[in-house]
Amino acid sequence: MYRYVPSLTALRTFESSARHMSFTKAAEELNVTQSAVSRQIRQLEDELGIRLFERVRQRLVLTEAGASYVQEVRKGLDQLKSATLNLLAYQGVGGELVLACLPTFGSRWLIPRLGRFTSQHPEINVNLVTRIEAFNFESEDIDAAIYFGDSNWPGTISDKLMGEEMIPVCSPSLLQDVGPINTPADLKQHTLLQLRSRPYAWQEWLKGKETQDINPAAGPKFEQFHMIINAALTGLGVALLPAFLIKEELSKGLLTQLFDDSVRGKNAYYLVYPENKRGLPRLQTFRRWLLREAARQEKQ
Questions:
Q1: What is the pLDDT of residues 202-211, one digit of tens each?
Q2: Most exposed among 14, 27, 209, 258, judged by the fewest C-beta atoms under 10 Å?
């Protein structure tokens, strides 16, 4: 299985030599002789059949192959270090769970609930990283992710968490400055705030209201929901937002829901993770908790 994998000593020697661009400095760091470093590099190159270093005007430089290889070697060494520290810290029980999450969903829905999880499972640390664009489980150090869309993600397992009710809202001050909004057609006099990742949201909403003569794509565009929320709060325009993300603003009267009904889209929030991690105990523990929290949200 590991026929083509060099020894850890050889890889550490190569990484140190590449970082310092010096066999002498690498030897000092590794507490070995300079000749031992040279021998390790020579043996590694012979084993791989590829030159990793060359001398240019008495200076040590990486070959193109060496420069590419050292990047991957560093990633591997970092993963080994992280795995070892994780094992020592948690003694094989619990550990760290790296979760990719949409920024606004994470800050406004997940994080306020994480205290309940950590109190029940103090042996598990959930490390959150934010993602807006698509991510790759194979190239990123991520155990699982919460994303919005459909369940079609090849090579993964998806658990549906919840849908969302979209409602148009604005600041009360906007209604005073620009005028009331009694029907969807009145939105023609207002600025529609846009989310880049959902370019057809207003189009679908207006179509459902059988409202024409309004350009659904016109208006300033924002990367994240929390930006649109702040824009709506300051009176920049009308926002189409998931109701569960703005409960506090609605209850305090900072935002006004413009119509009584809401629109439920066909997409939803999912917990998604690679098939090869389905047996990870800390992931399954978090999964069971998250599904319970999501079910509680859906009943509200």
A1: 999 998 888 8
A2: 209
CB 241 within 8 A of CB 104: no
Instruction: Report the C-alpha dihedral over residues 7, 10, 16, 17, rounded to 10 degrees.
Output: -160
**Integer Rg of the chain from CA:** 27
Question: How many degrees, rounded to 5, is the angle at CA 42 between CA 38 and CA 48?
Answer: 145
What domains, with CATH codes, occur in the chain?
8-89 (1.10.10.10), 93-163+267-299 (3.40.190.10), 165-264 (3.40.190.10)
Q: For residue 51, what are the contacts with CB-CB under 8 A and spacing of at least 6?
A: 45, 63, 65, 66
Q: How far apart are CA 58 and CA 73, in angstroms?
A: 25
pLDDT digits (tens, 9 = 90+) for 107-127: 999 999 999 999 999 989 999
For position 91, what pLDDT does the model report? 55
